[in-house]
Design a protein that fits this description.
Blueprint (H helix, E strand, L loop, with lengths): L8 H25 L7
């Protein structure tokens, strides 16, 4: 959701941070739903 036309660096960083947190949350949820890798 980079629809913000603001070029304020603080806003850009905040949006980037929220996006990163959101993605890491999805990755964590996905890896938790997957079975653990089996060691051979």
């Amino acid at each position: 959701m980079i629809a913000s036309a603001s070029s304020d660096p603080a806003d850009v960083v905040a949006v980037g941070w929220r996006t990163m947190q959101h993605l890491s949350g999805i990755i964590a949820a996905t890896s938790e739903s997957l079975p653990p890798p089996q060691a051979d």
